[in-house]
Every structure is written in C-alpha cells, then in structure tokens.
TrEMBL record:
The reaction(s) this protein catalyses: 2 GTP = 3',3'-c-di-GMP + 2 diphosphate
SMART domains attached to this UniProt entry: GGDEF (SM00267)
InterPro entries: Diguanylate_Cyclase, DosC_2nd, DosC_GS, GGDEF_dom, Globin-like_sf, Globin-sensor_dom, Globin/Proto, Nucleotide_cyclase
Protein name from the UniProt record: Diguanylate cyclase DosC
Primary enzyme class: transferase
Native species: Marinobacter daepoensis
Amino acid sequence: MPHLSLEYLTAEWLSLNNRFEPQTRQFALSFFQEHASTLAEQFYIAMLGDAEASKYLSNDDVQRRLGASMQRWLSNLFSSEDEASVTKLIAEQRKVGEVHARIDIPLHLVLRGARCLKNSFSTLSTSGFPDQENQRVDAIRLVSETIDVAMEIMGQAYAISHDRNSRAEEAYRLFAITQNIANEKDQQRAAVLHWENQFMFEQAVGKSGSALPRIQASDFGLWFRHKGIHAFEGSVEATTILDAMETIDDVIVPLFGSDMEQIDRQSERVALLHDLRDKVKSILFHLDSLFDQNNELESGRDVLTRLLNRKFLPVVLNKQIDQARKQKTSFAVVALDLDYFKQVNDTYGHQAGDSVLQQLALILVNKSRSGDYLFRMGGEEFLLIAVDMDKTNIQRLMEKLRESVASEPFRLPEGNTINITISAGAACFDGHPDYQRLLRKADDALYEAKNAGRNRVVIA
Ligand SMILES: Nc1nc2c(ncn2[C@@H]2O[C@H](COP(=O)(O)OP(=O)(O)OP(=O)(O)O)[C@@H](O)[C@H]2O)c(=O)[nH]1
C-alpha cells in the first residue's frame, strides 16, 4: 500500500492550521487542557458500553493512563504549528496506528473513539464563546478536521501494520507444525499414550478424582491447546480433539472421583474405562489425520540452534494474550542471556561459542515443556514464553533453568569442557493488551539480574 508522503501530509496539515485564526486554535488547546479528565471519563464510559471496545480498556494500567495520554495527544494536535513540529506530529500518529494494529484493536473502534471526542467537544464548548456563535462553529470545524486528519494518518499506518501481521499470522500457522513433522507427530502420539498410562496406573492404585491427572494439563494437552490449535485452526478435527479432552476431564475423570464407592461394581468401572479409551483413540485418530493433511509445509528456524527465530514472536505473543484473556489464565515471558559470552569467543574461538549456543538451546528445550515456546532473539539472547504460568511457578522454572545451565559442563570442539551461567528476567501477563510492554518488562528484569552480579533470575 503506497504511503502518502511525509512532505505532502505536512503541507496539508499546515494548510489546515492556516485556515483558522490563531485564537481558535488557542481555544481548542486550552479547552482540551481544561476538560481532559471529563473527556477521558466520557470517552471511557462510552467505550465501556461497547462489549468489544471494553476488553481493550478494562486493564487497570490502561485505565489509569488513559486520561494523561489522551490529554497529551490532544494538546499536541493543537499546539504544533511549525513544519518541524507538524512532521513530528505525523510520526506520532503513525506510531499510534502501529500500536493499535499490534494490539489488534479493530479500526472501527478507533473511529468510534474519535467520534466520541468530537461529539464531547461540540457539546461541552457551548460555554466557551457565549456571544460569538461563529467562533464556536469555527472551533468545532477545526477540532473535527484535525482529528480526522490524525485518524487518516493513524488509519493508514494501521492498515500497513495490520496487513503485515496478517501475513505473518498465516505464515506462522503453516510454520507452527512443520518443524520436523514426522517427529512432532510421534512425540505427540507418545504424549497422549503416556498420559493414558499414567491415568490407568493412578486410578488402579486408588487415587481419587481431583488427584487424577487431567489430559488438558498433560504435556500433550498443553501442546495442543497452545500450539496445535493455531496450526490446525478452523479444522473439524481440532475441535473434535478439544471436545474429547474436555469430556475426558470434565465428565469421565470426575466419575472416578470421591464417588468411587458408587461405581465400585466391576461392570460400571469397566464401562467407564472403555469410554475413556474410546476418547483417547478418537484423539489419536484425529491427530494422525491433522498431521497427514499438513505434512508438506515448510519450516523456518534459527539455523544454528533450531529454535524459533523472532519472525513469529509478535504472532505467538498476540495469540497468547488473546488466549490468556479468554481463558483467564496467565503466561510468562522470560528473557535469557549468557553471562560473559564474549570471553568464550575471545578465549576459545567463535566455533566454540557456536557450540555453547547449541548446547544451551538443547538444555532450554529439555527443561521447558513442549507447550512452551523458545526463541533465539539473536546473538546470545534467548526468549522463553512459558504458557499457563504464574509468578510462583515461573520463579521455580527459571531457577531450574539457571541451575541446569550452571551445573552442565559445556563441551568444546577441542574436547575440553567449560562452565557457563545465564541470567534471566521474567514478566507475567497482567492483562495489558500490548505485548511490547511485557517484553520491555522482561528485558528490564534481565538487566537487573545482570547488574546484580549475573547467574541469577529476577521477576518484574
Ligand atoms: N560464537 C558466536 N558468538 C556470537 C554469536 N552472536 C553473537 N555472538 C557474540 O556474543 C558476544 C556478546 O557479547 P556481550 O554483548 O558483550 O555480552 P557478554 O560478554 O555475554 O556479557 P554480559 O551479557 O554482559 O554478561 C559478542 O562477542 C558477539 O560476537 C554467534 O552466533 N556465535
């Protein structure tokens, strides 16, 4: 999509400004400064009335900052006069459009917000020019046209980013299941059977309902709910597998529960086990079919470590945010970085450094769960997205990773071994829709861990 050039937009915005008297612009400016909190409040009430819009505004942090950011945005719109500040203003509108696309706010909601602001201005400004109706009409036109120009620029940046995200999302859907498809299929089949075995054993030794393992929380369950479901999105088989898992966990397993005495007649117990086995068979059958349909897809990974590269990070994070919101769960983002890695390269050579990176990737894969995501962000920086994770568990997981790395002798190509440590910083999803914030918090926590002496973990 071609961009309207910056020069063209700047000239248009300046000519819009010049069509109005300086005191009209001044009026708009002081009006917005004076009424910022009332406007934010009205805006908030109007948007919360819309179920779709409210989910983008319900986060406490968004709510707290809304008034201030709206005031800043409006003040800038009416205080920028010369060419340099208008150019800066245009860049700001583009950035806002990109943020909206990143957090996937539908464009019509942004336009609705703008309409709400224009409407509030024309209603509230009646007292500003009691005797001069013409000036009030002028001010309304200025405010309306300025907000429209801002929306136009935001909208264009939004569309460009959104197109890019959609393409990445589609590519990711194809990519997600294609990392060695035969392997993945075998691994996930084995994970289903492992859960079934575990369940059979535990119920045979007399464990009751709540203590019995649930398939949705098993390795397979996590993998399917977080990765498989995106890869196979829209297919009937995927829905059938999700339904089968739900029936197992919510209907069949509880019958093995504290009411076991009531189903202690052998025949009822056997019938229940048959039901369970049928559901597991159905999961395996549909899983095979999903893999078979998708076995010709391409893959794309970091060449050195075979971890994900950062290309799909935005898609994965947006999907996790969406899922966490819908299912009221949380997840964590962990930034990991090797300590003093430069010394390894300087002392033992680049090839030795490469081998350390590969061994580290292997440890991270082995110590995380198959539903988690591991990225190599570049150089010696890694990122883990730990699904279904809260603050207590992430602390435990990070310590486990840190200790595993510290205690592992890393083999170098020459045959000798060295010890390496990592530092890590984590942030848990707190309901805020913008994943960049989460990445920033994890990075800040990592920075803190480095500053505190390295070989340690910090949670934001
Ligand atoms: N062998 C190898 N080295 C890499 C690769 N990518 C980045 N590096 C090296 O990683 C090193 C990173 O150094 P720094 O950023 O100073 O970090 P550090 O030495 O680990 O120090 P701290 O992170 O502060 O503990 C540099 O020497 C890079 O050349 C790679 O793919 N292979």
